[in-house]
Amino acid sequence: MTDIAKAGRFPLGDLRVKRMGYGAMQLAGPGVFGPPKDRPQALAVLREAVASGVDHIDTSDFYGPYVVNELIREALHPYPDDLVIVTKVGAVRGPDASWNPAQTPAELTRAVHDNLRNLRVDSLDVVNLRITGAVHEPSEGSIAERFAALAELQRQGLIKHLGLSNVTSAQVSEALGIAEVACVQNLYNLVHRADDAMVNALAAKGIAYVPFFPLGGFSPLQSEALSSVAASLGATPMQVALAWLLQRAPNILLIPGTSSLAHLRENLAAAELALSGDVLSQLDAIGKQGREHE
Ligand SMILES: NC(=O)c1ccc[n+]([C@@H]2O[C@H](COP(=O)([O-])OP(=O)(O)OC[C@H]3O[C@@H](n4cnc5c(N)ncnc54)[C@H](OP(=O)(O)O)[C@@H]3O)[C@@H](O)[C@H]2O)c1
After folding, report:
1. Residue-level pLDDT at 231
2. Which sequence spans correspond to the domains of the chain?
3. Residue 160 Cα, ligand 1 centroid: separation in angstroms?
């Protein structure tokens, strides 16, 4: 079995997790809406992730809605002491599967209470404030009132650590003036590297950077150069994409998403894949071709 601890650990606040984790969004039905297409497999994926050593699961009540948190509770509650569940608030789903902002202090407070109830915990390990705006890209604007609302819930003991999602560097700075930030979760992968500078800046501050869509999201990464590097290493392109992220910076924590046991095993095995300097240069060239915001 893969030893995922080989990829090392990094703190989320005072919770030190393995850098190879699991993102649970893919467990909901099509369009991240409704029940899973294969419920026994969804439960099995969660149980096998934890049995394989995963101690960091990313989720939200917007997945389903509520479906994914209910699966996590059914599969894993009572939770192992070392399991860190990171959730996010800031949106609600419409009956037509739409994603709608829910960012007032009252809506954020309701979402925290929903997550507490659905995960059946007294305190949430980490709550990310998911800023809406452009769908998967941050846009500028003050987040102070929203982040302060969550900081108040943290003071009340309902949340252990706070994080941010889909944010700019200026918004991270603004939040740091209000409370500690344990992690930032933005879109980033081998091809989409708009956050290169932010990854480095957060590493210098000891703040975790948790890329969403590490494999490219709903359309997984496809590149001839990636496939050829993977073939030369006897690995799969997805494993190489994850190994590249692990070597990109020590503060990167991985939450690859899958609804498949076979893909889970494949992804976890990337924790043991070391890439040479020469291979890293070839992979960096892919990112330069696809780099955005330059
Ligand atoms: N903060 C945010 O706004 C935000 C946004 C999106 C996601 N997230 C979080 O980030 C996590 C990761 O993102 P994601 O799941 O959307 O995208 P991802 O990890 O980049 O990719 C998931 C996609 O890749 C496929 N896949 C996974 N492993 C594979 C493999 N080994 N070979 C081939 N295909 C594979 C999955 O399909 P199968 O199910 O068939 O494996 C799924 O279609 C989510 O689970 C969620 O927790 C956060």
Report:
1. 97
2. 9-217+248-257
3. 26
Give the whole-angstrom CA distance, residue 27 versus residue 246.
24
Question: What distance in Å separates the CA atoms of residue 8 and residue 19, rounded to the nearest whole number?
Answer: 6
Cβ-contact 26, 263 below 8 angstroms: no
Q: Whose CA is nearest to atom 26 of ligand 1?
A: 258
What's 9-217+248-257's CATH class? alpha beta
Residues classed as catalytic: 63
Predicted TM-score (pTM) of the model is: 0.97
pLDDT at 289 (0 to 100) = 61
Answer for the pair 154, 178: CB distance below 8 angstroms, yes or no: no
Phi–psi pair at 259, nearest 5 degrees: -105, 10
Atom 41 in ligand 1: which residue has the minimum CA distance?
A: 258
Query: Nearest Cα to 199, choosing from 148, 252, 159?
Result: 252
Q: What is the pLDDT of residue 294?
A: 40
Measured CA to CA, the distance from residue 175 to residue 155 in angstroms comes to 15
Alpha carbon distance 196, 205 (integer Å): 15
Report the separation in Å between the CA atom of 261 and the middle of ligand 1, taken as the mean of its atom positions.
13
